[in-house]
Design brief:
395 residues; FAD/NAD(P)-binding domain; 2 domains; five-stranded parallel β-sheet
Length: 395
């Protein structure tokens, strides 16, 4: 019986993990199964572009992994039983169980309402393709002079509001930030950001703690009403609840707690990568939810799994940050250079140069998904008999 590795989720982290495992392990010994609910890879870093009317190139997962040893199953993950080492999925044939020898959990994150009333009923968000298309439809229905309010002053909120303001200058775009606008940035980057929002005519409400979302706008903690014809919620991201429903050790956010090899601290057969993992970086500081964390954590997990199965040396955790890339529409951006533990340096790229750099990063990430083997050399090693000797339960 082949050693079966099941990867849940085919976002940046999951797809990269599956592809790298395929390049590290010999197909005679291993079976790699990638399970995803959507038939296409979704460029999540471009959802604000999709929402404003730009079309993205489709990338079907079966085409992406054609010719590789990765099997693709389009199905919804319904549950995980880490004691029996099985995953329950639902596809066109109904629910069924799939057994695994090792699991790579990469189900990622989605919007969370932070217990703020009205978010689910009245707000749009951009955490996935279907949600971005819903916002796109709402924006298309707006007439000149209508107000769009983006709640959340982080990277996603800034990219979304500037994209809307540039694509639809006939609308009144506004941003509600819980703290100061870009207050985590260096002086140079923060000043450029403020000039950009002024140029685009964006109204910014700083230190606005939104406590309720209503049909006609939002209410803040100090009782202010900020009007909006459409509200876009980017003020919080949370992980899927599947992991928290298991006996896996999870943190307060529901992320799986892993060691510095991306291995679950409670279940050694489980690895978590990307947004789903509460993981340390090279400095010991927990990694933030981002593509910049997802891809390196996926590469590390795949290399560690391969090393443990083949008796090779366990690689060190060297995951750290270099910069934060923030698009400000299609022709402007900023790149804040940071320390490995994500603290801002004084220097930053701005303007068209930064926009070209950000676009290069996005295209490179998309290219890596369309060419999962990339430039990585093939070093497929045989699995040690002792590693493949466990007996699976389930189908």
């Amino acid at each position: 019986m082949k050693h079966r590795i099941v990867v849940l989720g085919a976002g940046y982290a999951g797809a990269n993990a599956a592809a790298r495992l395929d390049r590290r392990l010999h197909p005679a010994d291993t079976e790699i199964l990638l399970i995803n609910a959507d038939a296409e890879f979704v460029e999540r870093v471009r959802m604000h572009q999709l929402a404003t009317g730009q079309d993205l190139r489709p990338r079907r997962l079966v085409d992406v992994f054609a010719g590789t040893g990765v099997q693709v199953l389009i199905a919804k993950v319904d549950a995980v039983d880490v004691e029996r080492r099985t995953v329950t999925v639902v596809d066109a044939g109904g629910p069924r169980q799939i057994a695994y020898d090792q699991l790579v959990y990469a189900l990622g994150s989605t919007a969370t309402d932070r217990a703020v009333p009205g978010v689910t009923e009245h707000a749009c968000h951009v955490t996935g393709k279907q949600y971005a298309l819903q916002l796109r439809s709402r924006l298309a229905d707006l007439t000149a002079g209508a107000t769009v309010l983006v709640v959340g002053g982080g990277l996603t909120g800034i990219e979304t509001v500037t994209e809307i303001a540039e694509a639809r200058p006939d609308l009144r775009a506004s941003l509600a930030a819980r703290a100061g606008l870009g207050d985590w940035l260096s002086d140079k980057a923060r000043n450029h950001l403020r000039r950009a929002v002024d140029r685009l005519g964006i109204t910014v409400y700083e230190h606005a703690d939104v406590t309720a979302v209503e049909r006609a706008g939002v209410v803040t903690g100090d009782g202010r009403m900020i009007p909006a014809d459409v509200t876009v919620w980017t003020a919080g991201f949370g992980v899927h609840p599947i992991a928290a429903a298991t006996t896996l050790s999870v943190c307060a956010t529901g992320q799986i707690v892993v060691d510095d090899t991306m291995r679950s601290v409670s279940h050694p057969d489980v690895y978590a990568v990307g947004d789903a993992a509460f993981a340390p970086g090279v400095t010991g500081t927990p990694l933030r939810m981002s593509c910049a964390s997802g891809v390196p954590s996926a590469h590390l997990a795949a290399d560690v799994i391969a090393a443990r199965l083949t008796g090779d040396r366990i690689p060190a955790n060297r995951i750290g940050y270099a910069g934060q890339c923030v698009s400000l529409g299609r022709r402007d951006a900023l790149v804040q250079w940071v320390t490995p533990d994500d603290r801002p340096k004084p220097s930053a790229l701005t303007g068209r140069t930064a926009a070209r750099f950000k676009e290069l990063i996005c295209r490179t990430a998309a290219w890596s998904m369309s060419h999962p083997t990339g430039m990585l050399p093939t070093r497929r090693r045989r699995v040690l008999p002792t590693a493949a000797s466990r007996t699976r339960t389930g189908g």
